[in-house]
User: Fold this.
Amino acid sequence: MSRIVLVLGSSMGGVGRHVRMLAGGLVTRGHRVLVAGPGGTEEAFSFTGTGAGFAEVEIADRPHPAHDLRTALRLRGLARGADVVHAHGLRAGALAALALTGSRGWPRLVVTLHNAVTAGGAIGVVYRLLERIVARRADRVLAISPDVAQRMRGRGARRVDLAVVPAPPLAEPARPAEDVRAEIATRLSGTGWSGAGLSSTELSSTGHAPQAAQERPILLTVARLAQQKGLETLLDAAAGPYKGDPVFVIAGDGPLREELQARVDAEELPVVLYGWAEPADLLQVATAVIVPSRWEGQPLSVQEALRAGRPIIATRVGGVPAMVGEAALLVPPQDPGALSREIGRLLGEPALAARLAQASERRGRELPDEDAALRAVLAAYGLAS
Assistant:
């Protein structure tokens, strides 16, 4: 039985869910696990509910020398006697590396990098420094995508492998499909967009009059409403027109909600900002899933779409191409024209949509599961699985 400390920063999404999955799986395998992170993460994910311990450690999003020193000292104390410290995220990884400075090869430090560094300017300089700290100190770096792996090798990391970050099994829908469709139609009518504003030229180009809201194709995007997710490109493409008058449903929340809603209202776009929802409920009514992100690693939303057998249109970034294989139409990021063309193809070619759906279902069955992720981290820890 080994003692393992899992470290994470602020997270309300995929990183927190991944750490909870690891904590539960490691406890089940007989290891003693302590999760160290901000108090809000325990409230959101209940690590202690898995049988792990929890220690509150504030890891800020931005560097702050005095605060970071206190955090590093706190982590050093928590790591005393541990066999492995596994940090998630660049900030958590760098602070864990600083905390273990001077230790003589033990505990083993593993760092999973869940995101790419996209910031420029002074912030970008700081993050590049943090990458070097992680590369030089970590015994193993687990990268969320091939581009991040290559970047860390360039920073001098001794051992870099691809991380295995599976989505949990897709639950059964909690609500009937007709209820979900009816709610989307109601929300769309609340925006004042019904398709009636299409010009005669636009109606001619689509070849038909607008359909009733409950009959229209639903193009689903599951994302935090943040800059990384490329949602302004999605809104550019949503203006259409398209065959079938699709409704664009964005499930998620975040700092850009008000800005996005203001644009949807001003331009009368056929877009519903749905908020967070059970993925299975929306996937059962989705004609296709759209992923317009500037960058992604191994997005849980894409894995869920594959497991649901939905056609996907996604940007060719990060770990997405390797994840989807032949189950998606890929476009460059921040290119609304390319995205619009592929949406038009998908809606206009039923045979293409059917082929993508079949490929998606096959690929979904091939995705690694939670057991594969646990075997991978135990190998990184140097422990038998």
User: Anything to note?
Assistant: The chain is about 45% helix and 15% strand.
